[in-house]
User: What shape does this take?
Amino acid sequence: MNIRGRVWKFSDDVNTDAIIAARYLVTGAAAELGKYLMEDIRPGFSAMISPGDIIAAGENFGCGSSREHAPLAIKGAGIAAVVAKSFARIFYRNCFNMGLPIFECAGAVEAIEEGDEVRIDLESGDITDLNGKASYSARPIPPFMRELISAGGLINYMVEHSNERGKK
Amino acid sequence: MKMTIAEKIIAAHCDRKAVRPGEIVLARLDLALGNDITAPLAIDLFENSGVEEVFDKDKIALVCDHFAPNKDIESARQCRVVRDFARSHRVAHFYDVGRMGIEHALLPEEGLVLPGDLVIGADSHTCTYGALGAFATGVGSTDLAGAMIGGEAWFRVPPSRLFIYRGDFKPWVSGKDLILYTIGLIGVSGAHYAAMEFAGPAVSSLSMAGRMTMANMAIEAGAKTGIFPPDEITEEYVRKRARRRYEIYRSDPGADYEGETTIDLDKIEPQVALPPLPSNTRSVSEVKGIKIDQSVIGSCTNGRLEDLRMAAEIFKGKKVAKWVRALVFPATQAIYLQALREGLIEIFIESGVAVSTPTCGPCLGGHMGVLASGEKAISTTNRNFVGRMGHPESEVYLSGPAVAAASAVAGEIIHPDKI
Assistant: This one.
């Protein structure tokens, strides 16, 4: 399955306080959280997003607090995927657990500019810059993460796993 | 096969003889923790999962510490969700206003985390419990829900990185200064995905409070956890608090480390981390002319008795500078009570310091000391990102308790020797 959207670029070390400020941690509703995405570092950002757009960011994206409200806000604002040079570890696991597609690809982030149209093959992790026509391959998703994705997230995986062990 | 302490703990919890860095495993948990902002999402997921009972009601801890005592109606609603869930599922370890503490000070105090445990918490500073020789790491709300359903979590086994501390502590230098210095050295992703293992003669003399401060901030270097191999100080701490068995694991000599860094304390003065990153560190003497509006002493990083004692030593007989607000947050009710008995609270109040019931409060810009535009705070908390303590145009400088207290008296960031 492919996604296609406009790229919004961010730098290194975008932390989860920047992604969604603490004052908004009073709801779990993605659409509501999405309104306040990146508010303190890029005022008005949420209103600029069209559903299907893509964030491209530098190193250590999503560092800081574990708040799952961060990937929820990204999803709720209509962003379809995040490509980064690297991801902070709690953010990384949150994305696979709750279903926000993420891809690690320094080459793509270096080359792609803000405003470019990009296509991502969610299965293969191939990223194509539709402006520059260049293609990049994201770091392969580990097998266990693929299992989480095919189960439809961690909760489904855990419920199935528990059922298999005859717990319920 | 030779393994580090981190690898041994993970292996033991998935019934494997050995695990290697990079492997992904599913492992049994000794405890799963959530708080009033992360647990509501987990509870919602649990209640929609079709599972009726939690996996083990004795292995869940829920603490109302972030926006509690409730700062507004929405926070009250969230605490209510947590409270109702704890009640209906008979969660053994639920902590509410008046009978709680900041989670990462409270859980060790209550004996809920012990050496050799594998613990997850829906809070990034869960790594604090590595001070006890446990493997503890921060995760998201979905992981917490998963743990409530299956009693397990998935882990990518981290590589271990050794940090060896040698030399003598300079005056006023504490665990906070050591970890700030370390993060300054390696950067905010300098220990990316790794288990930071803290060792060396200088840390073996560090108290449990100092170790918890250091392990607490491992996440600020991008680490999966921070961990101290247990010793007599650990056993002394847990002996009177443990209500179940625990395992002592230590790293095998000759085990594989991804890197090894030796840090000489003779180089380390009290540290300050300038905004906007915890790695933006300086010696306090290099920080000149930064006038502050607020000083915060507390948090899961530095709200323990020793931190309060250090601050009180500085405040005693002195007053908070005009135009400056100083706040102290004892991290648990037990710490608050002991501080009261030792006369520390009296010292604080007489100096013009506000003393609060345990809460995370201003650390994440929640309540009890939020900053206005243009304000600067010196704080013993753990993050100083843009907008962390309030308005995006406010600034947070991180330090240990001695610098935070001295700066409150001086009205600007200053070395404790200078007041």
Q: What stands out?
A: The first strand of chain B starts at residue 24 and ends at 28. Chain B has two domains: 5-262, 271-418. The longest helix of chain B spans residues 73-88.
